[in-house]
Amino acid sequence: MSIDLLRHGDTGQRSYRGQLDDPLTELGWQQLRDAVLGHEWDRIVCSSMARCSRFATELAERRGLPLRIDTRLVEYHFGDWQGVPVETIAETDGDALGRFWADPVMHPPPGAETFDAFRERLSAALDDIAVEASDARVLVVTHGGAIRLLRCVAEHRCFGDMAGIDVPHASLHRVAWTP
């Protein structure tokens, strides 16, 4: 079994988007189409958010693959920071932003989802994927924050490492996941 995590493509937005349901830009569509060239999977699972599910649906239909949409794979909810440009947060609440980047577990954004809840729902989703596809190659189309957290869990890293994990748009990340 292998699980590849794919971050959605560009949405044209430059802020913590979280659970705002932005569509992909034309660039985002092209980034994703380019990212999957030469790769083969047996099934696809994706976030329910449009920036993931629309591309995953297109890819599944084009390749004749089963697709499952899983709401647990949605992005982290950034609370009061959702939709606010990072530069604005840095200007108005720079100390809190620095604490969040250093230790997101202890210093989440105001009104945000707890990291325990975020970890639990993402881990449960990956556990189910691993059980369902015990001998399959699975593509999981999800979000930057979700990929960072899942990599921390799979690689036994602290969540403070999340800010240093590079997850560009339409990037693939293979994880070894044991339920």
On the 0 to 100 scale, the average pLDDT is: 95
Helix content range of the residues, please?
25-40%
What is the spatial order of strands in the main beta sheet?
A: 3-2-4-1-5
DSSP E strands, number: 5
Radius of gyration: 16 Å
Element string (H = helix, E = strand): EHEHEHHEHE
Q: How many H/I helical runs?
A: 5
Strand content: 5-15%
Shape: globular
Spatial gap, N to C terminus: 12 Å
How is the main sheet built? Answer: 5 strands, mixed
Task: Note poorly predicted spans.
Answer: none
Structural class call reads alpha/beta
Would you summarize the structure shown here?
Helix content is 40%, strand content 13%.
Which tags fit this structure?
179 residues; alpha/beta; 5 helices; 5 strands
